[in-house]
Amino acid sequence: MHMNRIAGLLLATALTTQLAAASISGAASSDGGSVASASVAPAVAVVAARPAPQDQGNEFRWTGRLASGRVIEVKGVNGRVNAEGTAAGGEVEVVATKRARQSDPASVRVEVVEHADGVTICAVYPNGDRNKQNRCVPGEGGNMSVQNNDVQVDFTVRVPAGVRFHGKTVNGGVEADNIAADVEAYTVNGGISVSTTGLVKAMTVNGSIRATMGRADWQGELQFATVNGGIDLIFPSTLSTEVEAETLNGHIETDFPITAQGRLSKRRLEGVINGGGRELRLKTVNGNVEIRRAS
């Protein structure tokens, strides 16, 4: 497949699926989401909620308890998102640090939305379009655009065992270490690095993806995609999947014995690992693809 066609496909997939209106140039936009109501009974998702947090200078801090299986979702636009796993039963802690060269850091507010599935925290930038104001909404969709504002908001998140983590930004990397639940990570200009006892979903455009997973029992399809960067995945030995991997400028390697289907080459691999049962799709343009077995 022609390089421009692959790049266009991956870029369209990344932006459409997870970053609804992202601009790679820096006047970027990120994804939001839609729910029927942003307020739910605390017993559904938040085990012990705290009073509404307030901005204090250039640092914002939120803490609270989430039940196992719920999600802490962090959405930025300009800035990195870093998460670290903590002991079971502990509090979720989110710290947002704002800095800028010219714009006023106070112009960007950090919002918290509690919902049925957990808590979503966003960096909300001012928007000159009165008809399409930026909103902090869980999940996909919504509007998070940036116009002539160089404020960078870096998030640091502490995630207790059992709580899922979703990290999303546009201009910045996403890193999640020692998470004890499933992880989703999305960006446009930045790398992604995840280690978890659960499953991972990840997508970027300009950056590499590195993920270590403790489970391999997903349902349906699991996809990892980038344009400029490699894909390096570590699975447990129990991995059983139908795999399709593709690169244009790079090579493909796997530690797992594979039953080939169709034509094999250094740049395209299609086959079955341990009998299949689920689908794994890996695509990049400029980078290597590696499927490794956990030691």
In short:
It contains two helices and 24 strands.
Description of the molecule:
The chain is mainly beta and 295 residues long. 6% of the residues lie in helices and 41% in strands. The chain has helices at residues 3-17, 42-45; strands at 29-30, 46-48, 59-66, 71-75, 81-86, 92-99, 109-115, 118-124, 144-145, 152-160, 164-168, 174-179, 183-186, 192-196, 200-203, 209-212, 221-225, 231-235, 241-246, 252-254, 259-260, 268-273, 279-283, 289-293. It has an eleven-stranded mixed beta sheet. The longest helix has 15 residues, at 3-17. The model is unreliable at 1-45 (pLDDT under 50).
Please describe the biggest sheet, giving its number of strands, its sense, and whether it closes into a barrel.
11 strands, mixed
Q: How many β-strands, per DSSP?
A: 24
Alpha carbon gap, first and last residue: 35 Å
Q: In which order are the strands of the major sheet placed?
A: 2-3-6-10-5-12-14-16-18-24-20
The dominant shape is: globular
- H/E order of the elements? HEHEEEEEEEEEEEEEEEEEEEEEEE
As a percent range, the share of helical residues equals under 10%
**Average pLDDT, all residues:** 83
Count up the helices: 2
Structural Rg: 19 Å
Residue share in β-strands:
35-45%
Backbone structural class: mainly beta
Q: Which spans of ≥5 residues are poorly predicted at pLDDT below 50? A: 1-45
